[in-house]
Amino acid sequence: MTLLSPAERSYLRDSLTASPIIRPDSRTPHQFRPIEAKTSFLSSSNGSARVRLIDGSECIVSVKAKVVDLASVSNLVEVDIDVDSFRDDSNFVTNLKFHILNSLANFPSTVLKLTTKYGYKLFIDVIVTSHSSYPLTLISLATYLALKTARLPKLVSEVNDEEIAEQPTFADDWAESTLIQDLLDAPFQPPVLITLGIIGNNIIFDPSIEEEQIIDNSLVIGFYNGRVITPINTISLSSISNGVNSIVLVKALELGNKYGGMVVKALDTLIEQDIDDENIF
Amino acid sequence: MITNRKRLSSGLSVTSKVFVRSRNGNALKIVREHYLRNDIPCYSHACHKCQEIVKPDAQGQLPKFILSSSPTKTKDGVSHYVVIDTNIILHAIDLLENTQCFYDVIVPQTVLEEVRNRSFPIYQRLRNLVKSEDKRFVVFHNEYNEATYVNREKGQSINDRNDHAIRKVASWFNSHLNTENSPTPIHIIFICNDVDNCTKAKQEGIDARSLVDYIDSLPNGEDLRDLIPSDIVLPGNFEGDQNETVFPEYYSNARIMAGIKNGTLYQGMLNISSYNYLQGTVSVPAFKKPLLIIGSKNLNRAFNSDSVIVELLPKDKWKEPSSTIIEEGSIGADDNAGDDEDDLGEETGGVVSDKERVFLAQEAMKATSSKTNESRLQPTAKIVGVVRRSWRYYVGQIAPSSVSEETGHSSRSCFVILMDKLLPKVRIRTRKAKEYLGQRIVIVVDSWPSNSRYPNGHFVRTLGEIESAEAETEALLLEHDVEYRPFSKNVLDCLPKEGDNWVVPDMTDPQDPQLKKRVDLRDRLVCSIDPPGCVDIDDALHARVLPNGNYEVGVHIADVTHFVKPNTALDQEGASRGTSVYLVDKRIDMLPMLLGTNLCSLKPFVDRFAFSVIWELDENANILKVDYMKSVIKSRQAFSYEQAQLRIDDPTQTDELTNSMRVLLKLSKKLKQGRMDAGALNLASPEVKVHMDSETSDPQEVEIKKLLETNSLVEEFMLFANISVARKIYDSYPQTAMLRRHAPPPATNFETLNDMLNVRKNGMSISLESSKALADSLDRIVDPNDPYFNTLIRIMSTRCMMAAEYFPSGSYGYPEFRHYGLAVDIYTHFTSPIRRYCDVVVHRQLAGAIGYENLDLSHRDKQRMEMIVKNINKRHRNAQFAGRSSIEYYVGQVMRNNEAEHEGYVIKCFNNGIVVLVPKFGVEGLIKLETMGDLATANYNEDKYELTFTDLKGAQRTVAMFDKVTVDVKSVKDEVSGKRRAQLMLR
Known about the structure:
The complex is a heterodimer.
Chain A lengths: L5 H12 L17 E5 L7 E7 L4 E12 L7 E7 L7 H13 L14 E13 L5 H14 L1 E2 L25 E2 H5 L7 E8 L2 E4 L3 H4 L4 E8 L2 E9 L10 H29 L7
Parallel strand pairs in A: 4-5
Antiparallel strand pairs in A: 1-2, 2-3, 3-5, 6-7, 8-9, 8-10, 10-11
Chain B lengths: L5 E4 L2 E12 L2 E12 L12 H4 L26 E5 L1 H12 L7 E4 H10 L1 H13 L4 E4 L17 H24 L5 E5 L3 H9 L3 E3 L1 H6 L4 H4 L5 H4 L19 H9 L3 E9 L2 E7 L8 E4 L1 H4 L7 E6 L41 H16 L11 E8 L4 E6 L13 E7 L7 E5 L2 H4 L2 E9 L8 E10 L3 H11 L9 H4 L20 H5 L1 E2 L5 E5 L8 E7 L5 E8 L10 H9 L3 E2 L4 E2 L4 H7 L7 E11 L5 E18 H9 L6 H23 L9 E5 L6 E6 L4 H24 L5 E4 L5 H14 L10 H10 L7 H13 L4 E4 L28 H13 L12 H36 L2 E11 L2 E6 L4 E6 H4 L6 E3 L4 E5 L5 E5 L3 E10 L6 E7 L1
Parallel strand pairs in B: 4-5, 4-7, 5-6, 7-8, 19-26, 20-26
Antiparallel strand pairs in B: 1-2, 2-3, 9-10, 9-12, 10-11, 12-13, 14-15, 14-17, 15-16, 17-18, 21-22, 22-25, 23-24, 25-26, 27-28, 29-30, 31-32, 31-37, 32-33, 34-35, 35-36, 37-38
Helix pairs in contact in B: 2-3, 2-4, 3-4, 14-26, 20-21, 21-25
């Protein structure tokens, strides 16, 4: 962790609390750090995405689907997160996992149902190979991309197997597999988690590692179906921990509603430009 | 989905394939890298370019160019190569093997792989065609060739993609040979019976023809037309026969897999009852008794011994096994006979859920395991899928009544009655039906669509006149899948170059280190005892008294493995034949004659290599010491059983050799007694021997085989050697030792027989606690008035027994090694390597065990041993059946001239007939009720196994199980099946 000297801290704090906000990397308050992303690059996964930040943070997400007996499983989406240099049972990783899983609570699992007995279970595997700032947004963006591009093989056996059992059989052509969106017959937009930093009454999107050390508090908000959704959580990223006042909270929601859509749109554009290129070389 | 290529180096590029594999209900995404190269030649002698691009393989061999530069021509004189499509190979492999057509054939790799996935036997035949090079078949690896590899387009089915790849091969060959380099034009003809594919090919400028069109374009096309398979002439169906009946469609694979998993469907082998071709049983591990399949609708197009999927029928459809005899009679009259009409209502019953089926299965389990006999109802089932067809070549003859009178040149369909009574008649199309009447012909079954009452097949070749010895012999060899073609050149090449002049090398100056390990036993007084006229002598014996009063006894077995080395063509041929087959007038050897009758045969007066087992035995034949060694022996005499017996019995003979045989006899009696005390079974089968006239080789008379003391002398020592060797190889190779086991018979097998004995013979019964108990109880079953009765019961018990089988020792636990019939804990076959492949393997394992040589990997690998064992078990069974049917045929011929009255025994009772066994000929025959008396008056008492009826003279008569009856034995030829069989008439 980069430690800032008292002079640097004071300088940063002054510029971030100023109006207009001046961010150390000259971003506007609602601007994300530039990301570089690639989808469908893991050939043996149903869907995959890799997102890199300008500071070298990188996250890889793979989505795999497995056919399960619906009666034997409780949930159809499972998330596993691996962060470089953190134990799997550490608070840090468990928290990340909780946030991601929580955000997927309203995943349209009906599309995963194949027959009356069988369905797909999605296994979302996340690896954060390197990170400096809190990686939740990074993970969330990569997960969004992986889920959006995940393809599910097409079932060719009987759908109704309540009376007479049938073992699910699938079309052998990968090209016949379908996107979740096509199964849903509606736009499919998994929730995106956005980290907001609060300094005094100012709010900044996607705080960098230096900013994280200055800010009073952080908020994680979900964005789904065009607006901010609950739950909204506070997390403390630095040693400073102040409460969040209601004015700031309202402001945060406003900003979230305003800019969340742009984030999602940017990701969708990225997929459009990237899709149909399954070259593994 | 196929993605772009990337060049790795000059001449090699890589691409990838992505596809979905459904396995156990899961969908796996599979990604494969696929490498493409540019040095795959076209294999044509006409090509100038490919000679330069070829590269040697891993062994440094350059690919061989096969395709002729002046290939065969069509009627119009066009030199051509042929590219064939998968469906042509699958349906017309016989035509491809025909020597009159199909030369210079290009088999695209795509086609080869499709063939392998669809039918492994056909794949192997295709492989052999390519290997033999006679017909100039080549496999072109188009999938690895840069120029011919095609991508799967989006949304294209894999079949369409493969069709595209095959067409690409045709067009590539065309441009490669003709526009670039061949001096003479070579036309490429693409043969394909798929209309759509043909059209596409034509659009791409390829000369695509259907098989019929191609055959017609050949100079000898007229002769070949009949050989074109039926479903290719008219895809699907014979016209006019459509919808004559509707069999239920088979279940989808997805449903079958799930059904087997949740216990509502079962898989097993179908056994058609030999008395009723409309009734079969399927043995399923889940139930103690086999499931009954009754009626053609429930049998649903399955053939005898097909591997099938069955579903239980509702409980109200459960039945007793039919006690009626039904044979598939002549065509026409009974075309509509035999079907249970009540089956029709079944489909209307609505959907039966899996839950109900599971409940039904539990009911069935209860019913099959209940000990009480209160209900004889057996669960019935219907066939809902065929996993593997047992289709092969079938021998039969054209049913005369199915041949139309019209003379014409167009081909017509007619029925072929197969020799195997358990199989339905097959419809074929031919223009020469009249010509083939009265001949044994070979056919192949092509398909059995659900809307056709009979399976469709096509003619392959004719064997000759019915009842001519050659045709009948060949027919029964074919029917039992016995390889009888002469040994091929590469097999004969493995024999010693010296041929008949081969002699044992000089032992005093051994160059070969292996000769050093051989023990010189030429001083022992060895002799052989075999049936008269035996030429393949594979065992010899010796005995002598040791100074300490004990006996040294040696069993010497022909050292076949000295000549048959592992992994040679000779070894592979022997392994695939598995056993020699003995017919009445012919022997089909497992190994070439030179070995069997000369080099390996332990002939008298010459030195021979042998594998010897030498024991030191005490007065009571207990083993004190046992040694195994490769040796050199010199047999002093080759006796027949009778000669040996006479010599032993003659008190004036006091020479050493005779005395040693007396020692052997004495010890063999002790061994036999020991075996009997342990509970070895003495079962019987009605064995007969046919005497042939030496000049005309016509069968003269039938004799029941006699057994002499010397028979049992040889037998005892062979058993003794087998047991000793089995222990030795099991000790050295606990996982892969080749052993033979005989499982105890399940009690259910004896249920009916015991019930019959109980009812008919005042509570006599066969005890099943142990082999000893069984042997003793068999001894007790005697009818004081009828000495043959005991033998009869022994014959019937034999039929209730399990078959002995070979197995690698790792497949069972030690307690299950037991040989029930011989009452020994471990057993194998060691003593007849000339005529059994098992013994060859055992010889090699024993040689390994005593450190003579290293054991080949194939006999140390469990999986490969499993494969060997599976094959020899099958071959062994087939050889037995072939031998039996050969005897049956000749007995039929003998009876032709010896019609007379004989004694017989009732061994089966039905409500419309009885089956009688005639010990004199060892034949059994069915006597139908209508030939005995009035059908209407018949009354069958199932509990007492007796049939009461008014006979033709008007008298009341009762016949029952085990009754001794007098019958007229007559040999009649069945006009329909062309089979001669014993016709019995009750006196």
